[in-house]
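Hi both,

Apologies for the delay on this - the queue was longer than expected. I finally got the S-adenosylmethionine-bound model through. Below you'll find the protein sequence and the ligand SMILES exactly as submitted, and right after that the structure tokens for the full complex including the ligand.
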Amino acid sequence: MNSVARRFSRAALTYDQGAGLHRHVGARLLEILPDPEEVGRGRILEVGCGTGVLTGLIRQRYSDASLCVMDVAEGMVSCVRERWGHDLAMDYVVSDVRDFKTARPFDLIVSSSALHWAEPLGKTMATLQAALVPGGGLYAALMVDGTLAELHGLRRQIAPGKTPVGRLPTRDEVISAVEQAGFCLVSRKAETIQARYHSADDFFDTIHAQGLTAGPVSRAASPLSRTELTQLRKAYEETCRDPSGGVKATFEVLYFAARS
Ligand SMILES: C[S@@+](CC[C@H](N)C(=O)[O-])C[C@H]1O[C@@H](n2cnc3c(N)ncnc32)[C@H](O)[C@@H]1O
């Protein structure tokens, strides 16, 4: 199990408490998904299902279709299986999307707030293309460069020698990976979300409890020291205050629809 999978597995029980942002993104993604009649009794794959924030919405909307939920974190898949285990139209798969293969391609693939974890995106998009029937749809929302810009900026000031080894893809990099994998882009939409937290401590605790501090976007060659972490929390509290109270954090989201 890789470190992202481990981190998200551990976060499965605490993820939902701070998932307001992910609920919002899932609901916006639902708005651009195809009509249920178009999907009918087809097969849907959800990539990076997490605790099932989007899963419930998909199940409600596409009640005639079958749904396979997949996540690299076993703890997340167990969580969804516990909630929907009685639903005979559902399947559960623990897999890294980059290694996913299927003998029975899907009519529709959906993914909310997950694909940015699966770099390189080119490989991920090629895998998803191979998992779709010809003309099948890929609908996704993912976080792009600029997300948590306040945090990354302060971190660069406080620990300039400890910048994370990775970064989120830009919008253009996502679109180019989608098109290079052979998809035809149908629509794209960007959204900047300013999330609010009670305090810097609440912000750090929430993103940690959700597993969002995993992976190369957060990890530097050497970790921040206790003192640097304390400085970061203090600086965040002072410089990222929201006029209506608490602190704010920016999330840049790209929504897109594409056909294979
Ligand atoms: C921020 S959560 C989003 C979960 C859910 N879709 C939601 O909207 O709340 C990201 C999810 O993507 C999963 N994930 C990360 N990398 C993945 C990969 N390479 N393959 C499959 N799932 C992955 C994580 O385990 C986690 O459950």
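Main takeaway for now: The longest strand covers residues 184-197.

I'll put the files on the shared drive as well.

H.
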